[in-house]
From TrEMBL:
GO CC list: membrane; mitochondrion
Name of the gene this protein is made from: 109542554
This protein's record includes keyword Transmembrane helix: yes
Keyword Mitochondrion: no
UniProt-listed GO biological process terms: regulation of mitochondrial DNA metabolic process
Protein localization: Membrane
Pfam family name, one: Mpv17_PMP22
Family annotation (PANTHER family): PEROXISOMAL MEMBRANE PROTEIN 2, PXMP2 MPV17, PROTEIN MPV17
InterPro entries assigned to the protein according to its UniProt record, in alphabetical order: Mpv17_PMP22
Transmembrane segments: 51-70, 90-111
Name of the molecule in the record: Mitochondrial inner membrane protein Mpv17
Family, per entry: Belongs to the peroxisomal membrane protein PXMP2/4 family.
Keyword annotations: Membrane, Transmembrane, Transmembrane helix
Lineage: Eukaryota, Metazoa, Ecdysozoa, Arthropoda, Hexapoda
Taxonomy, superkingdom: Eukaryota
Species per Swiss-Prot/TrEMBL record: Dendroctonus ponderosae
Length: 177
C-alpha cells in the first residue's frame, strides 16, 4: 500500500487525530528552525522544552481548531471550488477567524510558557499588530489557493505545510527577549 493511501485511510478513520498530530509535528519543526537557523542556537543553548511546548500547542489547540474551522466553512459556505465560495471562505477566514484565533493562540502560548494572564495580555497587546500584519502578507494568498484547489481533507495539511515558515516566524517573534 502506498504512503498516500495509508495517509488517506488514516484521515478517513482518524481525521482529528491525524490533523492534530501533523500540525503538532509541523509546529515543532517551525520552532526547531527558528531556534537553530534564525536564532543560531546549538547544543546547550537549544531549548527542547520550547519545541515541546510549541508541538503540544499545535497538537492540542491549533490542529483541532483548524480542522473544525475548515469543516465549519465547508458546511456553511460549501465545498465547491468556485470563485464565489473561495472568496467567501477567505474573507471569513481572514476577517473573522484569523484575528480571534491569533489572540487565543498568543494567549495560550504565553500561558503554556508559565506567564500569568496579565503578562499574557501585555504580550498579546505588544505583539498582536505586528503578527496580524505579517499574517495578511502571507495567508490570504495561501488560503485562496487552498480553498480553490485543495480538497477539504488536505486543506489543514497544506496550510500547516506552508505554516512551517509561519510557525518559524511565530516562534522567533514570540520568543524575542
Amino acid at each position: 500500500m502506498s504512503l498516500r493511501r495509508v495517509y488517506q485511510k488514516l484521515l478517513k478513520d482518524h481525521f482529528m487525530v491525524v490533523q492534530s498530530a501533523q500540525t503538532g509535528l509541523l509546529m515543532g519543526t517551525g520552532d526547531i528552525i527558528a531556534q537553530t537557523i534564525i536564532e543560531g542556537k546549538r547544543g546547550a543553548t537549544y531549548e527542547p522544552k520550547r519545541t515541546a511546548k510549541f508541538t503540544l500547542l499545535g497538537t492540542v489547540f491549533v490542529g483541532p481548531t483548524l480542522s473544525l474551522w475548515y469543516k465549519v466553512l465547508a458546511r456553511k459556505i460549501g465545498t465547491e471550488m468556485s470563485t464565489a465560495v473561495t472568496l467567501k471562505k477567505v474573507a471569513l477566514d481572514q476577517l473573522v477567524f484569523a484575528p480571534s484565533f491569533l489572540i487565543l493562540f498568543l494567549t495560550n502560548l504565553n500561558l503554556i510558557n508559565g506567564r500569568s494572564l496579565s503578562e499574557a495580555k501585555e504580550d498579546v497587546s505588544s505583539n498582536y499588530l505586528d503578527i496580524m500584519v505579517a499574517n495578511y502578507k502571507l495567508w490570504p494568498a495561501v488560503q485562496l489557493f487552498n480553498f480553490y484547489c485543495v480538497p477539504l481533507n488536505y486543506q489543514v495539511l497544506l496550510a500547516q505545510s506552508v505554516a512551517v515558515v509561519w510557525n518559524t516566524y511565530l516562534s522567533w517573534k514570540t520568543n524575542l527577549k
